[in-house]
Amino acid sequence: MYKTFAIVSISLLFSISCSSNSTNNSTSAKTATKKTKTKKAKDKKAKDKNKSIKKKAQTLLKSGNTKEAIKIFDDIIKKDKKNAKAFFNRGTIYFNTEKHKKAIDDYNQAVNLNPKYSKAVYNRALSWLALNKPQKAIADFKKVLEINPDNYKAVNQLGKIYMKQKKYKLAQKYLKKASKKSGQSFRYHYYQAKIHLKQNKLDKTLESLNEAARLNSNYYRIFLLRGRILSKKKEFAKALKDFDKVVELKPDLYRGYYNRGLLYFQTKKYEKSLQDFIKVLEIKPQNVKALYMTGVVYNVLKKYKKALKQFSSAISLKPDYARAYHSRAQTRYYLKKYCKSLDDVNKAKELDYQPNPKFLKALKQSTSSCK
Q1: Which of 90, 148, 171, 213 has a 20 to 30 Å separation from 77 between CA atoms?
Q2: How far apart are CA 102 and CA 129, in angstroms?
Q3: 295, 324 Cβ separation under 8 angstroms
Q4: In degrees, to the nearest 5, what angle opens at C-alpha 190 toward C-alphas 187 and 195?
Q5: What count of other Cβ atoms lies within 10 Å of the Cβ of residue 277?
Q6: What whole-number distance in Å separates Cα of residue 176 and Cα of residue 184?
Q7: In this predicted model, what pLDDT tens digit does every residue of 65-89 receive, in sequence order?
Q8: Measured in whole angstroms, how far is the alpha carbon of residue 223 from the centre of its chain?
Q9: Percent of the chain scored above 90 by pLDDT?
Q10: Are the CB atoms for 57 and 73 separated by under 8 Å?
Q11: 117 to each of 79, 99, 128, 145, 150, how far by Cα in Å?
């Protein structure tokens, strides 16, 4: 009887103890779940708020209101000087508006607050490149790889820097590594082509570009570069197909139209050439080269007043554009504005441009009365 009672008592005590523990555990679990949910809700709210702020800043930037976009992050930083994302976002605005020293200052702050902020380190490296400080960029890209060894973009950037420095073996090493990491082997062949081009090996350049095009028929840069090489080799029909492909893939990119315009000019299809240069100016109104080339085409078509306007626009944007002065001099000569033509010739000479001897001889015969 005693033993039975004792067993029951122990059993009851154990049951009560377990029940008590179970209740406590259940309460703790509910509290923990509630805390987790609260934290998730707060995180989501913060994330949504950050997205909303970024969207507002992007809208301001698109409308050209850079100051207001920067002010958004200025206000956040004033309230919270440990907000690494705010420094990063403001730095990115400075980066996009080519204020690279200010961008670097903000990226430094972001990295100081969060040493593993690989995006800030990566962007800082890009700013160093923009400031023509490749060694500092190399150090930062390598730091990105310490934080995230799978960042193929940083590997690719290192390859591109070494390529510019003519360290071709190092360049090939990094570019090959980048193509493996990204699973985009066409990129390796594309950059291999650029290395061959720097070494003036045009046939090998084309071989690499052909392989890149076989692997990816939607990467416009392949066709743009191949078109340029084919133009150099005077294989105009093939080059035209490549430039057409660029325009098809990137209808809002001016480079396809510009290069096709040059090809049409070389093949004396002046009206088509003019259409392409005008298209460039629709996309990028202050493109100095396109302004100049429209002037050249207008000269060929004997539309001298239009040519004069284009050359003058190019010169206003680039006051040291010697070739534009020389071309405008020719246009003014055709318009019988001989003294002004001579002024332009003299300006071209000041800028170390040698005028066309036949043109200069003809001009001298018409400018004896000019001071």
Answers
A1: 148
A2: 14
A3: yes
A4: 125
A5: 29
A6: 10
A7: 788 888 888 888 998 999 999 999 9
A8: 18
A9: 71
A10: yes
A11: 21, 21, 17, 12, 15
